[in-house]
Amino acid sequence: MKKIIIAIDGHSSCGKSTLAKALGNALGYAYISTGDMYRAVTLYFIENQVDINDSAAVLEALKQIRLHFVADENGNRIHLNGRDVSEEIRKMHVAELVSPVAVISAVRREMVRQQQAMGEQKGVVMDGRDIGTVVFPNADLKIFLTADVNVRAQRRFDELTARGQHVDFEEVKNNLAERDHIDSTRADSPLRQADDAVVIDNTNLNHEQQLELALDLVRERGR
Length: 223
Ligand code: DC
Fold this sequence. Notes:
This protein is an alpha/beta fold. The protein contains nine helices and eight strands. It has two domains: 1-15 and 128-205, 3-Layer(aba) Sandwich (Rossmann fold), CATH 3.40.50; 30-122, P-loop containing nucleotide triphosphate hydrolases (Rossmann fold). The strands form two sheets. The chain has a five-stranded parallel sheet with strand order 2-6-1-7-8. The protein has a three-stranded antiparallel sheet with strand order 3-4-5, with helices on one face. It has helices spanning 16-27, 34-47, 55-64, 92-102, 105-118, 131-135, 149-162, 169-185, 207-220; strands spanning 5-10, 30-33, 67-72, 75-80, 83-84, 124-128, 141-146, 198-201. It is globular and about 50 Å long. 50% of the residues lie in helices and 17% in strands. The protein binds 2'-deoxycytidine-5'-monophosphate (DC). The site of 2'-deoxycytidine-5'-monophosphate has 14 residues, from helix 2, helix 4 and helix 8.
């Protein structure tokens, strides 16, 4: 069977990673959540007090950052310079700074370079904001995932609460709206639907229904 590249883009908290992971498992493909990479860079900037307005400092910091993914039974864990930061990067202080960090072209260039290298072997499901438009413009299948903002905020609130974080619903919803705005209006690779992407609105779909829809699309592409 020929292996393909699957790109999943969409707004914050649409369930992109959940679908990407399920698809990866179903197909025996690697799956990469590129948001984790931008979050890990953001965590490094916070911990090392890198001034995001100082381009020389940003470039220097990027040279010090090594990211890699380690697969385990619960999915991919991201390591920042050898340390598992998968929990840390989901905290609100990282969420609040990640979109401004993801605006920086030098950061994007480096992340895109690493993501393209990960797709060289094909057989990969990658989720993010610019995967179908910039990272893999020739991806065999592009999915643009979307859902009602209140439903997304509730999902993220439930996820954070389940992780033991004390957060306010309005704070979570405002953060989502703010990130959607920054991600969609930035100059460098804004979030937008690729012309050849298939839109899936999952407001009223459960995980199994989304996976079935996506697998149908994969089959249509001859996999
Ligand atoms: O998918 P996520 O919510 O974990 O992503 C966190 C942030 O990273 C998101 O607000 C925008 C940025 N991002 C990006 O700019 N490009 C990507 N390919 C993935 C994420």
